[in-house]
Design goal:
The chain is an alpha+beta fold and 100 residues long. The chain has one domain. The protein is built from four helices and four strands; from the N terminus they run ββββαααα. A hairpin with a 2-residue loop joins strand 1 and strand 2. The chain is globular.
Amino acid sequence: MIIKSYADGVLFKSIRQQDAALTSFSAYGSYGIELCLRDSYYTLPKRALIKEIFIHSFDSVEDHRQRLFWILFYLKYRDKLESVQHPMVDEIKAVLKERK
């Protein structure tokens, strides 16, 4: 199932293994956050960039649990994700700023 098309690729999910790069929540295991998922998230053309994985995660969020994993991923890798422009990132930064 196609989730979103981008200028340079496509984000989709499938129950079956695909000849495409894992992305979104399916790629979190490579970054130390293991999740058990029914579907796998993929991107074409094949690539594995942490910023794209992060953006694909937000674009594929279906519930609050996934949103929490997305925030956890941001907190773990915020040094690499600071430059991502997204309203939710701004909200996370605002919350973190208030806690200091």
